[in-house]
Prior knowledge:
This protein is mainly α. Helix content is 78%, strand content 0%. About 2% of the residues have low confidence.
Amino acid sequence: MKEKILNIAIITLSIISLIELLINKSTIFNTISYSMNLWISSIIPSLFPFFIISDILIQYNITDYIPNPIRKIFKNLFNVSDNSVTIFFLSLLSGFPSSARNIRVMYDMNLINEKEASHTLIFTHFSNPLFILGTVSVFFFKNETLGLIILIAHYLSNIILGIITRNYNTISIIDKKQTNVLQKNFPKIFISAIKNAIDNLLTILGTLTCFLIISAMIINTIDLSNYNSTILKGILEMTMGLKSLSLLNISDIYKVIISTMFISFGSLSVHMQILSFLIDTKISYKQFFIARIFHALIAGFLSYILYIIIL
């Protein structure tokens, strides 16, 4: 019965959306154009190379080359295996949703188990540093110091989450044969990494466009204030929400706190992208979603403290 009600609801919403698309053709066209431009100018440059490099590093057992003292510190800090430490460092550099993608790759290779994959997903939800220090601080807020505050609060709150949840993890104990790097077929790995990166980027484009369209339709249908419109945009699609936030006539401290919370939550668009990597697995999205709420709250509080200290 529940499934039938859900199906009816989805069909009804789809028909309403179709009618809305026909009525507001120009708005939808502009939204799709904006989505394509955002994908080409921001997402591809920041994610495409990292997707390829991450695949290559994982295939070549980069975990074995991380110095033991560093591995030991982070293994004890988060109560994880060596492979999760690798995901942590790759996520710091590349940002979401590549953390979910790398977790799925290692999960499929039997390098981490289901419980550790779910745990690692909680504290590796990092935004790309280039996005925060470039797009957010320079292009949106015109203030590099604000970007630095957002970056520190966002990263530090993730680490705090990893420490808080460390006792809920079961470390993967998986036997794997050590493979000689010289025996790897680099051309095959390289081409496969490119194909996977393109597939993932197209999925991100589709998800991004759909949520931008949903946001545009809601805003056109319901008369919202600039403030409520900004919150809605930030929840549905992070980048659009941050851009709208930068245009509001409010104090910088509020912009820093809200933008840090937007980025730490990630928006439903990013959540859908991450879900696309978890399909056909038992990796817990529910834990990830709850963690993002706490992540946003902790990051918002830290950004407030850092703003007072630094500025």
